[in-house]
Structure formats: C-alpha cells, structure tokens
Specification:
By secondary structure, the protein is mostly helical. It is built from 16 helices and no strands.
C-alpha cells in the first residue's frame, strides 16, 4: 500500500516546542468554545424567551459544517498557521463585540444567529487547519501521540472546563462568558503566531488559478479523492454510522435516565460526566493502543467496544453499568478519532489534507441529525431500549468494512509504504 505523500517534519529537537504551542492553543480555544456552548443558549433564552429561537441559535453554530468542503479547499490554499490565527482572531473580535453588546443590554436574536454561524465557520477553519498542520510538526511515528494530545486538550476544554466556567460566569454577570471566550481566542492566536510558517501546499504544487470556478473545482477534487480512496471511503461510511448510533442514543438519553433508570435530575449529568471521563481515558491510551495493535486492528477494537457497550445497555439497564458502558463507548470513539485522523494525515496529499479532513467530518456531522431523529422516533414508538440496540447492531454490521484498513504499526520497520492506498 502506498502513502499519498506528507510534508517533511521539522528536526527532532525543534518541533517539540511547536507541538506544545499547538496543543496549548487547542486547549485554550476549546475552553472558549465550551464557555460559548454553555452561555450562548442561555443568552438566546434570556433575550427571546422562545425555545424555537434557542434551538435555531444552537443549529446555526453547527450549520457551518455544511460548508466544510469549500472551507477545506480554502484551508489548503493558505498556510496552516494563517488559517488558525485568522480563525482565532475573528472569533476574538466577534466575542468581544458580543460582550460589549450584552453589557449594554441590546441583543437581538438575528445577531445571535449570525454570530453563531460566523463563529461556527471560524471553528471549521481552525479545526481543518489544525489537523493539516500536524504532519509538518510531528514525525510519522508521533502522529497518534500528537493527535491524542490535541484531542485530549479539546475534550478537557469543551467537556470539563469551558461549560461549567461559562455557566458560572453567566450567573455572576451575563456578559462575562463572552469576555472569557474572546480572551482565550486571543491567547490561542498569540501562541500560534510562534509556529513555523511555510508556503501553502497548493501553491507549492503550482496551482495558480483563482476565483469561484477554481474554488469549486478544487472542492470537487477533494471530494473525488475521498470517494476514490478505498480506505478513506470505508472510514467515511463507518464514521457516518458511528454518528447515527451515537446521536440515536444521546438524543433520548435524558428521558432514558429518568424513566428507564429511575434516577433523579442529576442522573443525566452523571452519565455525561462518565462519558467525558471515558473520553479522557481513551485519549491517554489511544497512542499506546495504536502502536501496539496497529491502526487497522485499533479501529476494529474501537468499533467493537462501542457496539458491545450499546448492546449491553440494551439488555441490562442498570445505572452503574450504563455509566460504565458510556465511559467505554466514549473511550472507543476517541480511539477511533485518533487513528482515523492519523490515517488521513498519512494518506492524503499535503495539498489536499484540508479538503480530506473537512469532507470526512462532513460525513460524520451530516449523519448526526439522522441519528437523533431516528433515536427519538424509536424511543417513542418502540421503547427506550431500542436506540441502544439499533446503535450496537449498526456498528457490528460495519466491522467487515474495516477489513482492508492497514494494521501496520506507526513507525514500524515496514515504513510508510504500508500506510494505506491512494489513487
């Protein structure tokens, strides 16, 4: 199997400080994102008092992923550092403006929807560029370890630190979460300015065309590459199924915890904490697991663990076991993410990594509304156990698709020639 190509990493002694900057910047941005995720719906509810507009604001923040393939093309045409710094500075300005507006008490729901959409677009730019720049900063055998550190920083910021801090600051003074958000993005941008700069990969390849037609042609080229590469195509199918299964379960989880498990109001929070702890545990073990088993076997383990955790809950709805299974499921999902990110970085040509990342993630995010709708309908008409059973069976059916994924260990003697296939 043949690697599509990767940029030359920096020398061993020089890349460690840059990797630390990248991980720290991701942690800061994630704290800001987590605070915004908690405070923006509160602001929408406080401003409008209408649950419909609260949901519209929340949806606008995720709608930016529909533009991900085009954004990925733009990321490929800019140096990675510029994309990340620009995204952070744009979010900093937007959130500081929101801080000023909320402080004056003149918020409007239209402004909130537009801000949620614009900050979502900046988030897509940042995430795509952050994954595209890793191969330049890390050697091949360090990809899993570096990606695990980045994902752990994101989980800590968006899952543990950001939301409670945002909610607490909201209780103190409504504008404060947005001030924190703007400051974290500014700090992240300042850190990222210290990363090495280089010419955008597409410019290195000699792509001189500009304009809308060139943008659309480049976007189509990225989607076509994803569709033609056997490994990436199969991973996209499986991640879409993962998204369907996960959202089918989580869409009905709050009702499941109350009615099926009989827990009080804090029971739902307990389950979310269990899942977050599992995610951190998975991130800490993902690099070692990938090195021990290889990417292909690690992905099979991740999908099998996730599938079995869903099926166990469908059969044995006991709340300590449910919490444990949610933790195991989250650990499996993080292992999947670490391995697939590293595989994409190995398989995609450097000048297409932004497009490959954005197209892949569009498959994941695009499947989530389908899963949430299916989970809610099943829970209502079939029973609260049905979403868990559906998620587990769908994932088991995906295991044959992972048969062709390479199992060569990162940094093994086999070399990059065994990393994957690409047209």
């Amino acid at each position: 199997m043949k690697l599509a190509g990767s940029p030359s990493p920096l020398a061993e002694g020089s890349r460690t400080p840059f990797l630390r900057r990248l991980v720290t910047a991701n942690a800061l941005s994630s704290v800001g994102d987590g605070a915004r995720f908690a405070a923006l719906p509160l602001l929408a509810a406080w401003s409008t008092g209408d649950v419909f507009w609260v949901s519209v604001v929340a949806a606008a923040g995720r709608a930016a992923w529909l533009l991900a393939p085009v954004i990925g093309t733009l990321v490929d045409r800019m140096p990675g550092r510029r994309s990340m710094v620009g995204a952070d500075l744009a979010r900093c300005v937007m959130l500081l403006l929101l801080f000023a507006v909320v402080a004056t008490g003149r918020t409007s729901v239209t402004a909130l929807v537009l801000l949620a959409l614009a900050s979502g677009v900046a988030e897509v730019f940042f995430d795509c560029a952050a994954q595209a720049v890793v191969p330049m900063l890390a050697a091949d055998h360090e990809l899993e370890r570096t990606n695990a550190r980045v994902i752990a920083a994101q989980i800590t910021g968006t899952g543990f630190v950001g939301p409670p801090v945002g909610a607490a600051l909201w209780a103190v003074w409504h504008p404060l979460p947005f001030l924190l958000d703007g400051v974290t993005f500014l700090a992240s941008a300042l850190l990222l300015m210290g990363l090495p700069s280089r010419t955008a990969p597409s410019e290195e390849a000699g792509a001189e065309e500009r304009g809308l037609r060139s943008l659309l042609r480049g976007t189509w080229a990225g989607l076509r590459f994803l569709g033609r590469d056997q490994v990436l195509r199969r991973l996209m199918v499986v991640v879409a199924v993962l998204g369907v299964g996960q959202q089918a379960v989580y869409a009905a989880l709050v009702v499941y915890v109350e009615r099926k498990l009989g827990l009080p109001g804090y029971g739902y929070s307990l389950m979310l904490v269990a899942a977050a702890v599992g995610s951190l545990a998975g991130a800490s073990a993902a690099a070692r697991t990938a090195r021990w088993l290889g990417p292909g076997r690690s992905l099979k383990v991740a999908v099998s663990v996730s599938a079995l955790s869903y099926l166990v809950v469908a059969v044995l709805p006991w709340w300590p076991l449910v919490a444990l299974m949610l933790a195991l499921n989250s650990a499996g999902v993080v292992l999947w993410n670490v391995c697939t990110v590293s595989l994409r970085q190995r398989l995609a040509p450097p000048h297409m990594l932004g497009r490959v990342t954005s197209g892949y993630r569009l498959a994941a995010w695009g499947a989530m509304p389908i899963g949430a709708s299916a989970g809610g309908a099943l829970a209502r008409h079939t029973g609260l156990d049905a979403p868990w059973a559906l998620a587990g069976l769908l994932l088991l059916a995906c295991l044959p698709l992972l048969h062709k994924v390479p199992s060569v260990r990162p940094g093994s003697a086999s070399g990059p020639g065994n990393a994957g296939t690409a047209d």
